[in-house]
Amino acid sequence: MAMISRLLRSTIKAAITAQGGFHTKHIPAVSSLQEHIVRNSTQARYNSTEASLQNDIPATDNRGFRGHDMLAPFTAGWQSTDVDPLIIEKSEGSYVYDIKGRKYLDTLAGLWCTALGGNEPRLVDAATKQLNTLPFYHSFWNRTTKPSLDLAKELLDMFTANKMAKAFFTNSGSEANDTQVLLIAFKLRVACGPGPVLSGL
């Protein structure tokens, strides 16, 4: 972990140095990595009491919408305010392109949901048809959709475990993990009776 922190520090400092000029400023941070950062004078305006820097940048500016209005996960506050975000505009297969036309290999599959690549024709066609018919509907209170039933059957047909009798769909890995823990706790309670409460992982 210490090595990763050192690498991150050197990478950040090198990136800022490449932009020219030094200006040392203390930055309130959530980790020691962000306690002090070397910044040039044009990047020093990050205080949350000031108006967002996005007011100084027209929407057509190609610097990347510094000071944007999004709250980004795993991103320090000063980065959102003072550093241009990487803005991805389009995808082709396993590659994505930013607003300046630069090409990147998307090794994270969009972080979770584009394992088959971007704009895969079969997915685009299926999604377009479904969006034109029924964009979304929940499965609460014994309600569902035909595509959901078809997918559940197809998934269960792949498994030989005869006790795996149902499929449960979620919108994210977090929901899947939370549900898994709750289902295990429920099964244990039914099988063994009341016991310790699982309060966290």
The radius of gyration computed from the alpha-carbon positions, rounded to a whole number of angstroms, is 24 Å
- Number of helical segments? 5
Distance between the termini: 21 Å
- The helicity comes to 25-40%
- Main sheet: strand order: 3-4-5
Reported for the largest beta sheet, the result is: 3 strands, antiparallel
DSSP, total strands: 5
Order of H and E elements:
HEEHEEEHHH
Q: What structural class should be given to the helix and strand makeup?
A: alpha+beta
Strand content: 5-15%
Shape verdict: extended
Uncertain runs are 21-57
Q: Averaging pLDDT over every residue, what do you get? A: 71
Protein model, in words:
It contains five helices and five strands. With 201 residues, it is an alpha+beta fold. Among the domains are: 2-85, no CATH class; 90-135, no CATH class.
Topology record:
Layout lengths: L1 H17 L4 E4 L9 E4 L37 H6 L5 E5 L2 E4 L4 E3 L15 H13 L12 H12 L15 H20 L9
Antiparallel strand pairs: 1-2, 3-4, 4-5
Organism: Nicotiana tabacum
InterPro entries: Aminotrans_3, PyrdxlP-dep_Trfase, PyrdxlP-dep_Trfase_major, PyrdxlP-dep_Trfase_small
GO molecular function: pyridoxal phosphate binding; transaminase activity
Write a brief caption for the model:
This protein is α+β, with helices and mostly antiparallel strands and 201 residues long. The protein has five helices and five strands, in the order αββαβββααα.
Task: Label this structure with key terms.
three-stranded antiparallel β-sheet, aminotransferase, alpha+beta, Aminotrans_3, 201 residues, transferase
